[in-house]
Amino acid sequence: MGFARFSSEFSKINLFSALSLSGEKSTPHPITPRIAKLIFSKWTLEILTLLQNQGTTRFYDLYKALGGVSTATLSKKLSSLEGKEVIQRLVYDTKPPSVRYALTERGATLLLLSEPLLLYLRYHEALEQGKT
User: Fold this and answer.
1) I need a surface site. Which of 27, 45, 48, 59 has the fewest CB within 10 A?
2) DSSP codes, the chain
3) Domains of the chain and any CATH numbers
4) Residue 22: pLDDT above 50?
């Protein structure tokens, strides 16, 4: 119960101090099913977490690190996240052109707001590993 209460308080503090998902610096919008679907849809947390940990990353490096996602699915997911301004696609003027992906401020905010969930998942993963 202590962990759940701590996570709830952490979320409230960060929700009210974080930028809104609309990019305005006013009071954040409440979490809606549309926002929840964005955060919890397949591959989203993995992509965002990888970008947070690795920084600016090439498509192929994301593909390798995710393991199990098709290139078509990854491309579609990256385009969707870019369209929602959660990540940015950086094109470098090289021969051939180089493309990398990075978190935006909005993407970093989403990860901050999902931190209690990630802590919970790590906690239970550690418990399960301790049982084997």
Assistant:
1) 27
2) -HHHHHHHHHHHHHHHHSPPTTS-SSSPPPP-HHHHHHHHSTTHHHHHHHHHHH-SEEHHHHHHHH-S--HHHHHHHHHHHHHTTSEEEEEE--SS-EEEEEE-HHHHHHHHHTHHHHHHHHHHHHHHHHH-
3) 2-131 (1.10.10.10)
4) no
Distance CA 83, CA 77 (A): 10
Looking at the chain, the whole-number percentage of residues with pLDDT higher than 70 is 70
Q: Hey, which residues does 91 pair with through a beta bridge? A: 99
Least confident stretch, 27-31, 54-58, 121-125: 27-31
Token couple for 121: 């998942």
